[in-house]
Backbone:
């Protein structure tokens, strides 16, 4: 049997906080308990928000916590042609369609919400004719490419995935995926040949990842990931969903909310040992 492979995959769009530290340490502990490998992946497909200085800070913060990882580190921004090829395979099966809707148009829709709370796409562009599509591209319009989730799910049938935890010794359980609750998700974004959903399953397969550890808030996204794994013939890892580190108001820590960074804690005199103990490691 191949050695277990686990990965921590932050985005370099800000400084890491305690939530990232918990996730990284959790993954490293699981890798050690399973006798497996610990990988670091940089998920920098958002070229506007990703910065080299944040990537350097990720390396610095994780090393300060006492973590070590295999080299070389995969950076997703180097793999756009790979993701485009995967999307092309779906497009060849008529499972993707271009969506020209603006964010304002999407915000004005009222057809329910997906598990993240975003409006479900009502299919405005799904039935555009080939002539209309060609005309819009000819006029210079950019498009998101959306998955025909209902047709894709019909092809794959009932989808399940394995969930392990809360410790590596516990027996995994089988859960059912429900991709239809996401509607027609975006798999290629305007100006970018991929999305988080597409790139993460392609890279997990390419790196031989056997166990995915992520926060509980990410469990619903597994619906789409399992669907894409089946459609693209990719491996399906086991999943574990760990607790979230919350702020004083009981909300998840977030870069966008300005949650205190590990760098700030370090500069304030906190030690890595104290952080590890505070987080339960």
Residues:
């Amino acid at each position: 049997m191949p050695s277990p492979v686990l990965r921590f995959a932050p985005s370099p769009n800000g400084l890491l906080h305690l939530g990232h530290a918990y996730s990284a340490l959790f993954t490293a502990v699981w890798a050690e308990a399973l006798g497996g490998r610990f990988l670091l992946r940089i998920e920098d497909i958002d070229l506007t928000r990703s910065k080299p200085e944040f990537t350097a800070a990720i390396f610095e913060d994780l090393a300060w916590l006492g973590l070590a990882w295999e080299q070389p580190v995969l950076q997703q921004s180097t793999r756009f042609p790979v993701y485009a090829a995967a999307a092309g395979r779906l497009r060849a099966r008529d499972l993707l369609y271009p969506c020209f809707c603006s964010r304002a148009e999407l915000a004005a829709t009222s057809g329910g919400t997906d598990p993240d709370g975003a409006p479900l796409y009502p299919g405005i562009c799904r039935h555009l004719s080939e002539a209309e599509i060609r005309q819009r591209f000819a006029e210079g319009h950019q498009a998101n490419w959306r998955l025909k989730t209902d047709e894709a799910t019909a092809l794959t049938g009932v989808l399940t995935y394995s969930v392990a935890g809360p410790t590596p010794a516990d027996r995994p359980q089988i859960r059912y995926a429900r991709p239809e609750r996401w509607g027609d998700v975006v798999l290629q974004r305007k100006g970018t040949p991929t999305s988080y959903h597409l790139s993460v399953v392609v890279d997990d397969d390419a790196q031989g990842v056997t166990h995915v550890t992520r926060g509980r808030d990410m469990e619903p996204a597994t619906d789409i990931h399992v669907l894409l794994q089946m459609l693209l013939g990719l491996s399906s890892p086991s999943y574990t969903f760990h607790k979230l580190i919350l702020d004083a108001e009981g909300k998840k820590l977030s870069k966008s909310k300005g949650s205190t960074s590990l760098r700030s804690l370090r500069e304030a005199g906190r030690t890595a040992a104290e952080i590890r103990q505070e987080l339960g490691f």
